[in-house]
Structure formats: structure tokens, C-alpha cells
Design goal:
single chain; mainly alpha; MetI-like fold
Length: 317
Amino acid sequence: MIRFALGRLVLLVLGLVVASALVFFTLRLLPGDVAQVIAGSDGTPAQVAALRDQLGLDRPVALQYLDWIGGLVRGDLGRSLITGTPVIDELAQKLTVTLPLAGLSLLIGLAIGVPLGVVSALRHRRATGVTISVVAQLLAAVPAVWAGMLLIASVAVTLGLLPTQGFPIDGWAEPGRAIRSLVLPAVTIGVIEGAVLLRFTRSAALGALGEDYVRAAAAKGMTRTRALVTHGLPNVMLSVVSVLGIQIAGLLVGAVVIEQLFSLPGVGRMLVADVGRRDLTKVQGELMALTGLVLVLGFVVDLVHRSIDPRLRERAS
């Protein structure tokens, strides 16, 4: 297990290095001059040149990258080119919205995908199973923005049950209002992610139903449902855990879009605004933080999957 963890840790570090280079150099390909944006349309060439020198934008790109990497190693994501505030401070504040949104969406997705996936597998030759499978296929293809607009129009505007825009100014000092503000966005993401998880769960459950140990349990008098839940569900959950790393990345990407739609002051909304203002230091810090979060969570999922799956432990030994 230690050897496996060290190998995955090396891959994690390499992934972070590659991601940092892609983020940094790709942003430098964007058109426009950051110093000109800061100076404004009335800025003189001398003022723009002074800004470029002050911000270090006239230095070789490779040296700028090495300086940024050095800051990342020290936990410093840099300072905003527009406001001068530390990126990590603003990012930490915005994550108090984005991470709860992603976590609540994941819980909703699991609550939908796992039980319905098992039911769909148990009744895969009946109308119930076919209907669940078809609906899941359709929901998985629905754009998050369209689903969010439907929920706003039906649940919030027509019924007036939940807020459609914004987040409490005091944040989590008002936990009830904060959670209510996240319900509709989380349902929007969670239903779509749940449909994807349902398909994985259904496939894993169908495979478990064909295993000898499930059929032997059924031959001893257990119903197929009880045999699957008692003996096959652990293996089904292993399959679900193995795809959670990919799904978590999808949750964070979905949060970027949904935060714009529901006017939530999270990382996604901040990222879109900073791209429009050409605040490259903040944008690259935000992208690197999100990428690092996805890679670290994938690393944790790999370790969890390895530790709870006896087949992988036996194969390694």
C-alpha cells in the first residue's frame, strides 16, 4: 500500500507540474495587453510601459513562470493585477460557497444514482428498469444551464419555494438562508451527475447479478434483491468510488456555470469576471487551485479504492 501511495504521489506531483505549465503558458496566448487594460483607453504609451515594468510583464515569460512556481511551492498564488489583494485570500472566501455547493450536489447525485441504479439493474427487463434507464440517458445529456432555468421557472418563480439568485451577505453566519440559496443550484448539478452515476451503478449491479456468489446466495433461498444488496452491493460501491474522481471534476466544472446562472459569489463567478478583466495572475491562481483540488481528490479516491478493495490488495501482494 505504501509503495502504491508513493507511486500515486509521484504522479500527482507530475500532474501538478504539467497543469501549472499548461495554465500559465496558455493564458499568455490570449490576445490583448494586461497593462493596457489596467491603464485604460486614456493610458499613454509611457504609462503602459511603466505598468509593464512595475508588474514584471516585460520580463521573459520563462522567468515569470519560474517566479510563479516558486510562489506556488510556498503556498503563494500571487496578487491580483487589478486590486493588488492576495489571490489566496479571495479564493479561500469564494471556496466557502463553491465547495458546499459541490458537496451538496455530490450527495444529491449519490442519493439519486445509487438506489435507482440498483433498481434499474434488478428490473432491467421490465418497464420500470427500462424507463429509469431511458430517463437517466436523457438527463445525462441535458445542459446544466437549461436544467437550471427550468428549475428556476418551475420551482422558484411559479411556486415561490426557494430563492433563485444570490447568497446571504453574511455568508454562513446565516446557515439556514445559505443552505436555501444552494438548494436549487445543487439540485441542478446533482440530478445530472446522479443520472451519470446511475448508469455506472446499473452496469456494476448487472455485473454483480451474474457473479457466482450472488447466484449461490439466491439458490440458497435469498431473493435476487436481497442477494444483490447483501453480497453484491459492496462491489457495486467499489465501482462507484472508482468513478467519483471523474465525477468530482464534473461537479466543479458544473459549479462554474451554475454559479453564474444563480448569481452565487463562488470561484466560478469570480473566474469568469477575472477573465473578462484580464487579471491573469488571479485567473492562473484560480485555475491552478481548481486543478490541484481535482488532482488531490483523485489521488485520495485512488487510495480509498485501493484500501477497501481486497482484490487489488491481493494482486499487489
